[in-house]
Design a protein that fits this description.
The chain is mostly helical. Helix content is about 80%, strand content about 0%. The chain is globular and about 50 Å long. The model has no long low-confidence stretch (mean pLDDT about 80).
């Protein structure tokens, strides 16, 4: 339990990321649980999903109050992501954990770069489905969800670092509604991935429970920051943290493999 004093502030940081920019939780949680919490990669993946689900559920309530959750499109996206997350989880069982972490690093960087692009500052061009549902948008939402879910299952992450850029760049969401809707999608995809991983291993609740509580506290702070600070500024800090985490993860995985 000596590692908990280090993990608790990281848990708060994870919650702040989820509450303010709608992603990044597992980007930090998985490496933290592996390298600081002495968890196995698969145990860390399962634990990170628990943390992300708990924190995202609290954050979702806040964004619901603001009207920044696109329920219909989010549920369709999340359902597609849930199906492909299971396929990704099954594939991950047959791959070397360190190879997964190494492959995860460039994916993190791509997500970070996408988050700070020009589209992130643009207004929404997405037509809410309460105003009408058409085949084209349905197909785009479904295909985007399938691709995102596969990454969620394969790498054992909540997927917000992919969901938000996909919603903004691919589907035309404004940043605020992308963050709110991503929390709904994260919960759906993470529940599916967690169910598969619980069958393959146990969770160290003595570590994960306080870690999750810290993340819940952080998400409340992050939601408040999201109202008071520029979302673009928060997104830039998010991108810096993701790139730094990706570099550290890649180095550690390379050391383990060589």
């Amino acid at each position: 339990m000596s590692h908990l004093p280090l993990l608790i502030p990281i848990g708060v940081a994870i919650g702040i990321l989820l509450g303010s920019v709608g992603g990044g939780g597992s980007l930090v949680a998985v490496p933290a649980l592996v390298y600081i919490g002495d968890q196995s990669v698969r145990g860390a993946q399962a634990g990170a999903l628990v943390v992300v689900i708990a924190a995202s559920a609290i954050g979702l309530v806040t964004y619901l109050r603001r009207g920044d959750v696109r329920w219909r499109a989010g549920l369709a996206f999340g359902a597609a992501a849930g199906v492909s997350a299971l396929a990704g989880s099954l594939l991950s069982r047959h791959l070397d954990p360190n190879v997964l972490l190494l492959a995860f690093a460039p994916v993190m960087v791509v997500g970070a770069v996408a988050m700070v692009g020009e589209r992130g500052r643009a207004a929404s061009t997405f037509r809410p489905w309460r105003e009408g549902i058409f085949p084209g948008p349905v197909a785009r939402v479904t295909l985007s969800g399938l691709g995102t879910g596969w990454l969620t299952g394969l790498f054992g992450v909540g997927g917000g670092f992919v969901v938000v850029p996909v919603l903004v760049l691919g589907l035309g969401f404004a940043m605020g509604e992308a963050v709110g809707t991503s929390l709904l999608v994260i919960i759906m995809g993470s529940l599916v991935a967690l169910a598969e991983r619980l069958g393959a291993g146990s969770i160290d609740w003595a570590v994960i429970a306080p870690f999750a509580v810290a993340a819940v506290v952080g998400v409340l702070v992050g939601s408040a920051l999201g109202e008071r600070l520029s979302i673009q500024a928060l997104t830039r800090w998010f991108a810096v943290l993701v790139v730094a985490t990706a570099a550290y993860t890649a180095i550690e995985a390379l050391i383990a493999l060589t």
